[in-house]
Amino acid sequence: MKRVEPVRIKEQIAEVERLLSKHNSSTIYADLWVFLNQTAARVSDALSLRYSDFDRIEGNMLNLREQKTGKTRSIMLTPKALELVARRRADNPEHTYLFEVDSNRAKGKPISRVTVSAKFKEAGDILNLHIAAHTPRKNLGFHALKRGVSLPTLTKLYGHSSQAVTLAYCGIMDKDIEDVYASIDY
User: Which GO molecular function terms does the record list (predicted)?
Assistant: First the structure.
């Protein structure tokens, strides 16, 4: 199975969002794509978020108990993420979850991770990108590294055990290292 990589061209991140809006009857998948790209939350953690979780934020920090690790981690909510939460809450006042399904079959439950991966994959296929539910989390790290954010900072942001894990996670490949050598001009 091919490993999911970050979307390396920023404009394609916005294009995936556009395709998710265009090819689905609701904005839920596009909204989730944006939220994940803005927060670097794991998809399973984002899907479990309830509106009541946002009632307890301090400033723009959301304390989240990670399903994978069981640890509590603080996630900074960007203005764009906060606006998205406010809009979804206003549009769906009867929902409990931030990313809740409207279908009768799954009423009162968040969308499934499997469905999210399938929807993201469909949008990625149109753009010839290999993406899935975990891609937005990787996007944030990849583009932050390209902007010069330090590796120790990203390792802490992700809660990784080592910088090597973060490097691999952010999609830094041999080609990126070759590009460094190729760009030496002195």
Answer: DNA binding
Per-residue pLDDT tens for 107-133?
A: 899 999 999 999 999 999 999 999 999
Q: Which amino acid is at 69?
A: T
CATH number of 10-138: 1.10.443.10
Rounded distance, CA 81 to CA 78, Å? 5
Half-sphere exposure of 47 (CA within 13 A, CB side): 18
pLDDT at 178: 74
pLDDT digits over 41-75, tens only?
Answer: 999 999 999 999 998 888 899 988 888 888 888 88
Where are the domains positioned within the chain?
Answer: 10-138
Share of the chain above pLDDT 70, in %: 96
pTM metric for this prediction: 0.89
**Cα 41 to Cα 122, 127, 134, 183, distances in angstroms:** 21, 24, 9, 34
